[in-house]
């Protein structure tokens, strides 16, 4: 039996590799929330009401596979699971901060008042 090794992937530009890991509608949002500390799935769902449970679980699994988040399972009843950034995941913090700063600038440019457009959730001070 022959085992095939997967072909090495080539990128046209390195930002493709970044977006492969944190791209899409939800991953960066999840990561921004995790920069504020460990979160349970229910915590993330509460601060991201538009995401479905299925999508949240899928995105967390992908981030875990890419060694960006840690899944911590506590041996208790009822079961408790928390997510946190890994050491490698924390290396994304400067990028996430820049994305937030650009987003604020864009909101002000487009709408004038950022506070009228951002949720009052303690993350947008």
Report what the structure shows.
- By secondary structure, the chain is mainly alpha-helical.
- Helices cover 50% and strands 11% of the residues.
- It contains seven helices and three strands; from the N terminus they run ααβααββααα.
- The chain has helices spanning 15-22, 27-34, 41-47, 53-65, 87-90, 93-111, 114-117; strands at 39-40, 69-74, 80-85.
- Strands 1-3-2 form a three-stranded antiparallel β-sheet.
- The mean pLDDT is 89.
Averaging pLDDT over every residue, what do you get? 89
Oligomer: single chain
Radius of gyration: 17 Å
Q: Major sheet, described briefly?
A: 3 strands, antiparallel
Shape: globular
Blueprint (SSEs and pairs):
Blueprint: H1 15-22, H2 27-34, E1 39-40, H3 41-47, H4 53-65, E2 69-74, E3 80-85, H5 87-90, H6 93-111, H7 114-117
Antiparallel strand pairs: 1-3, 2-3
Pick out its properties:
mainly alpha; globular; 3-stranded antiparallel sheet; single chain; 7 helices; 50% helix; 125 residues
In short:
The protein is mainly alpha-helical and 125 residues long. The chain contains seven helices and three strands. The longest helix is centred in the C-terminal third of the chain and has 19 residues, at 93-111.
């Amino acid at each position: 039996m022959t085992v095939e090794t997967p072909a090495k992937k080539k990128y046209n530009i390195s930002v493709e590799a970044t977006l492969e890991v944190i791209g899409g509608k939800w991953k960066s949002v999840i990561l921004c929330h995790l920069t504020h500390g460990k979160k349970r799935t229910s915590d993330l769902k509460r601060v991201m009401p538009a995401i479905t449970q299925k999508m949240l679980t899928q995105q967390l699994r992908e981030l875990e596979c890419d060694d960006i988040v840690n899944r911590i399972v506590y041996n208790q009843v009822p079961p408790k699971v928390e997510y946190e950034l890994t050491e490698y995941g924390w290396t994304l913090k400067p990028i996430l901060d820049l994305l937030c700063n650009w987003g604020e600038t864009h909101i002000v440019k487009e709408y004038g008042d950022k506070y009228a457009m951002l949720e009052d959730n303690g993350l947008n001070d």
